[in-house]
Amino acid sequence: CFAFRQAKKQDDNLAFVEAMEKEISDHESRGHWTVVERKSLPANAKPIKAIWSFKRKRKPDGELLKHKACICAHGDMQQWGDNYWETYSPVVNMLSVRLILAIAKIHKLDSKAIHFVLAFPQADLEEDISMQLPIGFQVDGQTEADSDRYYILKLNKNLYGLKQASYNWYEKLRISLEDRHFKPSKIDPCLYLGNGMIILIYVDDCIIVEPSMTKIDSFVQSMKDGPETFVLTDEGDIDKFLGIEITHL
After folding, report:
1. Does the model's pTM come out above 0.85?
2. Is 115 exposed, middle or buried (0-12, 13-18, 19+ CB in 10 A)?
3. Do residues 80 and 167 touch, judged by C-beta distance below 8 A?
4. 137 near 24, Cβ under 8 Å?
5. The pLDDT of residue 183
6. What's 33-73 look like in SS3?
7. For residue 142, how many other CB atoms are within 10 A of its CB?
């Protein structure tokens, strides 16, 4: 694909190769797909393409944070009513983000930012979808050409790029919060209130604001140890969240 060819031409291409290896390893270790033979597919089934997405993630001051490689499904090849239905999921209003950041700092509330690792694949996939092997991917004991010719990936989990990916992820997160007695704001459905706590969702990132860090830590632990077994990382304080840097005057 074009993105893959462009990444190979960059001076830091080896860093992207390492990011690709990590991306594949993360997906496989969590069982997000199963490698199956192409001949096992129904005669009318057509695997969708896999696309590499590359990004240099930076801090607000421009300093390089890390190289990111993401495997995405080519959602434009999906057919509505066949392998997807619902697609809508709300997007947080940036006014809500700025308001919560300001309230937290003005009232000196404790806060924490968390990031859900490979968030979309943490949600289930109900539809039967197969995908071609990504460029650079090969089955053990096979060449890349033979791997692409004879094998495909049977998706077991929601994957970035699928038409329903964002919807599936938001629904899982919404249900998990409501089960913990949080309610969405009537003005912004990505702003949740409950138990004296404020939670703001920005796709796979959250900010949590509460007077007690002990309660925040308890909530985060419940997300890890609960029935959903969310995989997430603690990003610390919200001074630098979503590229917004807060300066204390």
Report:
1. no
2. middle
3. no
4. yes
5. 97
6. EEEEEHHHCCCCCCCECEEEEEEEEECCCCCEEEEEEEEEE
7. 14
Contacts of 88 (CB under 8 A, 6+ apart): 167
Neighbours of 130 (CB within 10 A): 20
Give Cα 215 to chain centroid, integer Å.
Answer: 25
> Over the stretch 14-43, which tens digit does the pLDDT of each residue have?
888 899 999 999 999 999 999 999 998 887
Which residue, among 141, 161, 142, 133, has the nearest Cα to 34 in the 3D structure? 133
d(CA 51, CA 70): 8
Query: Average pLDDT for residues 151-160, to the nearest whole number?
Result: 95
- Residue in the structure block whose two tokens are 């434009």: 76
The residue among 188, 195, 118 whose CA lies nearest residue 157 is 118
- The token pair at 103 is 């309230």
Of all residues in the chain, the percent with pLDDT exceeding 70 is 92
Tokens matching residue 165: 């990916």
Residue 87 has pLDDT above 90, yes or no: yes
The answer to whether residues 69 and 148 touch, using CB atoms and an 8 Å cutoff, is: no
Burial of residue 25 (CB within 10 Å: 0-12, 13-18, 19+) is exposed
